[in-house]
Amino acid sequence: MIGDDIEIVIVDIKGDQVKIGVKAPKNVSVHRTEVYKEIQDENRKAADATILPSELGKLGDLFKKKGT
Predict the structure, then answer these.
(1) How far is CA 51 from CA 3, 32, 54, 55, 57, in A?
(2) What are the residues facing 23 on neighbouring strands?
């Protein structure tokens, strides 16, 4: 158990391999390390992205087209 609501379970054992699972509430994200790091990198890139003034006009045009 991790805390009161996260449980590590043995899913399968074959020879010298053990498969584990994680039971956690839906509001708890569970990822392998490499996936977690990739998500963090993408989040950083998105946070660093800036919208240029020239792009704002294009964005406005898209909204106008959707409304008509």
Answers:
(1) 42, 32, 8, 6, 10
(2) 7
Tokens of 37: 């790091």
- SS3 of 1-68: the string is CECCCEEEEEEEEECCEEEEEEECCCCCCCCCHHHHHHHHHHHHHHHHCCCCHHHHHHHHHHHHHHHC
Residues 1-59: tens digit of each pLDDT:
999 999 999 999 999 999 999 999 999 999 999 999 999 998 888 877 766 666 767 77
pTM of the prediction?
A: 0.53
Nearest to 46 by CA among 38, 54, 34: 38
